[in-house]
Specification:
The chain is α/β, with parallel strands linked by helices and 875 residues long. 31% of the residues lie in helices and 23% in strands.
């Protein structure tokens, strides 16, 4: 089905001419539900003002001298705001209870008051009122589910707000000073809220809801579907901010771990968006209302299952609309594109297939209509970038060119485990003025806030006596700086407190029951010692230095310590804070995670930290040698190993370090490319330059075929007896006899060998299948040489290149397969590998410059020195 590009414009113009009678003539929708315990009146309003107008009219129509009314607010700090708003509407004699200290007095006096029969109370305080069974004549619930309240009253009034049918129609917000949020300075204008280990930032006022019923615009059908299929009505930490913000049509970035509830932060909003479009009954539009871009099919199928269940109620009143469309195979793109030319709910698709799908658009064949596509979700953005950074950049360029992200058109929703500074701050925050940023991970927020992180490895004696800690505290101005020292156990914090007292350092050993809490709220400076269990109770504001002195029992809990910096981000005009992480020199597991964090975020780091991790690995290997294990691939690539745990060998033998005689060790080498196994690793066929520009293949080009012909004769196959690393032997692989070098021992019967002429990929061969190599063959140069760029590595501790990155270099730089001649200057050689500074094509293109300019890579300038040191220490 083809349709004009102007269809959406015509429809939008026509819709603007139609009076919006539904929202103007019916600002409040009433639904009465009779239950066994009484009556529940559901009130749905299009704005806060309409809710207040209806509630004020309802109260003024009642005889408040005879009836008792209790209004339950979602948050205690909302009570005074609601009281003031009702008094503006001539509702008098209201009693507000918003603090636990008032509970006892109000509980004793309120039932006997002649006036002030309207009591406003916070949801978290209602249980402490100890109201008897059916003692309330009218119970008003402000955006709170009615479950659990039916034993208090026969007449319940439940308020919610309808918002954005097809467009946003709410224009007013509650006064945010009543919500306890603070406004940042001019330098970083916005609203911050720190609550329950979560930090939220937006340039629009923040509203958080504990229940889905408190989210304006979420219809009762969507809420019922959530309860029916997933029993969800209460928000998790990150959802308390996301639901309200997204329902207004704003964009969002959410940073948190896998199980923090990121997906359910946007599922209700997407479901409501689709339901709003479908229930209008006008199907002149086409294409999806929402798009969800996922990492892979596995994650996409989970989301599609959720969305189908959430929208299952639409089957009776939605007409001919495909609610959920998925695409996991490129062979189905044409078929799916035809489906998307009709009205659709949500398209769930991978990044690569979305880029292919959008290429099918042409004049008269519009798949993605910016005028009707309301929400785009990019789920697990950091994984997409890691797996295929090239396509990732293309995707975001297309999104920014195709759509306008604002309240009236399309919203962009991003979830990620990592804060990506260059993309999120430099690009998204500048083009999305209404974006909400939510951090569930305090350590990731430190990358956002510019916290300087330093690691220090100390000995057991140093750690026990606090020598490094005391030197650090001596350098601090304790009268002007606030320093928090965190320990895991109470015994550890007590020992540290005694240590500071013995060295005459004034400090506070934090206890939530003492009076120090009030002092800290009024700006007390100095040293605070605290345990992990007490961190949620510490409200000390801006801190200058966080010192993590002892380890926790989990990485997630260790990262929670960085939540203390949340208050710092409100005041960016102050000097940047810092964190000092003190590790016992044997505690390398969490130190590795910190180094990985710094490397992934391209933050300031010291090579001594990485060297310590590697040295610890070497010490373990000295205690438990691994003589028959293959050399670590990281070791032979970079001169050390950054893996968190590595089962390979890191102490090479002298004959493994020396470059074999059949490989050149200096000068310029010319070659053809046989394969590109990674952006920095090539398998090449060497050439010799006789008469420029016509290179000739080395004289022994027929040698591999000669080897096969010679060893086909059984008489020439002599079993190998000298089974040692570095020995050249003959193996049979793929029905071909070829040369190989022994590089390790997999077991008592299996040997690891490296082919020399057809490939360089190591393989395991039985000892009985190895044959002696004749002297006539062993002296010849290898016909398949491995070339590697010195020092270029990806930004991660595992140093693994993705398939997409390798494919990109293979086709964009080398344009394989081809007979193009390349050249390189040999830097040094080790273990059958030649290291070169760069590779040049015949037109002068530079591989190293290509990688540095186009890919997220790191240039480690210390690689050659490490290999020199490795050669000296070889066994």
């Amino acid at each position: 089905m083809q349709r004009s590009n102007k269809v959406s414009d015509i429809y939008l113009a026509a819709k603007q001419l139609v009076p919006r009678n539904d929202s103007r003539e019916m600002p409040v929708e009433i639904l009465v539900e009779d239950t066994v315990d009484g009556k529940i009146t559901h009130v749905y309003a299009i704005s806060w003002d309409e809710s207040l107008n209806y509630l004020a009219a309802k109260l003024k129509s009642m005889d408040l001298e005879l009836l008792s009314v209790v209004i339950v607010c979602q948050m205690s700090n909302h009570c005074m705001w609601l009281k003031a708003k009702l008094e503006e509407r001539d509702v008098k004699d209201i009693l507000a209870c918003h603090h636990p200290n008032e509970i006892k007095t109000i509980r004793q006096c309120w039932p006997y008051l002649m006036y002030q029969k309207v009591l406003i109370i916070g949801y978290d305080l209602i249980d402490q009122m100890q109201l008897g069974n059916k003692t309330i004549d009218v119970l008003v619930l402000d955006n709170i589910p009615e479950a659990g309240f039916q034993n208090l009253s026969d007449d319940i009034l439940s308020f919610s707000h309808l918002r954005f049918q097809m467009d946003n129609c709410i224009t007013s917000y509650p006064d945010q000073t009543a919500y306890g949020v603070s406004h940042a300075n001019v330098k970083n204008t916005g609203w911050y809220n720190i609550n329950r280990g979560v930090m939220a930032f937006s340039r629009f006022p923040l509203i958080h809801c504990d229940f889905i019923t408190g989210v304006s615009g979420i219809s009762i059908k969507i809420r019922t579907s959530m309860m029916k299929h997933y029993a969800i009505d209460k928000a998790r930490k990150v959802q308390r901010f996301a639901w309200s913000h997204l329902s207004y049509g704003h964009s969002m970035i959410m940073i948190g771990h896998e199980k923090c509830g990121k997906s359910w932060s946007f599922v209700p909003i997407l479901s409501q968006r689709i339901y709003n479009a479908i229930k209008m009954g006008n199907f002149e539009w086409a294409g999806p209302i929402c798009i969800a871009v996922v990492v892979n099919m596995s994650e996409g199928e989970i989301l599609s299952k959720i969305m189908r269940k959430m929208l299952d109620f639409c089957s009776t009143d939605c007409g001919n609309v495909t609610k959920v469309v998925t695409l996991w195979n490129s062979s189905c793109i044409t078929e799916v594109s035809k489906i998307l030319c009709r009205p659709c709910g949500i398209l769930i698709i991978t990044m690569e297939l979305l880029l292919q799908l959008q290429q099918l658009e042409r004049p008269g064949y519009l798949i993605f209509d910016p005028m009707h596509l309301r929400s785009i979700v990019v789920d697990n953005l950091d994984n997409m970038h890691r797996i295929n950074p090239i396509k990732f950049v293309k995707l975001f360029n297309w999104l920014m060119e195709k759509f306008r992200f604002n309240m009236t058109q399309t919203q962009l929703i991003i979830t990620s485990r990592l804060w990506m500074e260059e993309l999120m701050r430099s690009q998204l925050m500048t083009v999305l003025p209404s974006i909400l940023i939510i951090f569930e991970d305090g350590l990731e927020a430190s990358a956002y806030g510019g916290i300087e992180i330093n690691l220090k490895f100390v000995s057991d004696i140093d750690h026990d006596k606090g020598m490094t800690l005391l030197r650090k505290l001596n350098d601090c101005n304790l009268k002007k700086e606030r320093i928090v020292v965190v320990c895991h156990k109470t015994s550890e914090s007590q020992h540290l407190s005694e240590l500071l007292s013995a060295n005459r350092f004034p400090h506070t050993h934090y206890n939530p029951t003492n009076t120090i809490i009030k002092k800290m709220q009024y700006g007390m400076k100095g040293i605070i010692i605290i345990t992990d269990d007490m961190l949620p109770y510490l409200k000390c504001g801006y801190i200058d230095l966080l010192i993590c002195y002892t380890l926790t029992n989990s990485w997630h809990r260790y990262k929670t310590r960085f939540n203390l910096f949340y208050a710092n981000y409100k005041t960016p005009e102050k000097s940047p804070a810092s964190a000092l992480i003190i590790f016992n020199e044997n505690d390398t597991k969490q130190a590795w995670l910190f180094c990985d964090f710094l490397l992934k975020h391209d933050l300031t780091m010291q090579h001594e930290w990485f060297d310590h991790l590697y040295e610890f690995c070497l010490q373990e290997e000295i205690i438990e040698p691994r003589p028959n294990v293959s050399l670590c691939t990281q070791l032979v690539s970079y001169g050390n190993c950054y893996r968190r745990s590595c089962r390979y060998r890191h102490r090479p033998m002298a004959n493994e370090i020396e470059l074999p005689n059949y490989l050149p060790n200096r000068g310029r080498i010319f070659f053809n490319i046989l394969d590109c196994t990674s952006p920095t690793t090539l398998i090449v066929k060497p050439l010799v330059y006789h008469d420029p520009p016509y290179p000739k293949i080395y004289q022994n080009i027929s040698m591999p075929n000669g080897v096969h012909a010679y060893y086909r004769q059984k008489v020439n196959r002599i079993p190998l007896k000298n089974l040692s690393i570095g020995v050249i032997c003959i193996v049979e692989s793929k029905n071909c006899y070829q040369r190989a070098a022994i590089v390790g021992f997999a077991s008592d019967v299996m040997v690891c060998v490296r082919p020399l002429d057809w490939d360089v990929k190591c393989m395991e061969i039985s000892k009985t299948e190895l044959y002696e190599c004749h002297a006539a063959f062993s002296a010849h140069m290898s016909q398949a040489i491995e070339l590697r760029l010195t020092g270029i590595m990806p930004y991660s501790m595992d140093r693994l290149w993705t398939i997409a990155e390798t494919r990109y270099v293979r086709h964009k730089f080398f344009r394989l397969p081809s007979d193009t001649i390349y050249c390189a200057n040999i830097d040094f050689g080790i273990n059958h590998v030649l290291f070169v500074n760069t590779v040049y094509s015949n037109n002068g293109a530079d591989l190293k410059a290509f990688l540095l300019n186009r890919m997220n890579v790191y240039d480690d300038i210390f690689v050659k020195n490490r290999f020199i040191d490795l050669s000296i220490k070889a066994l």
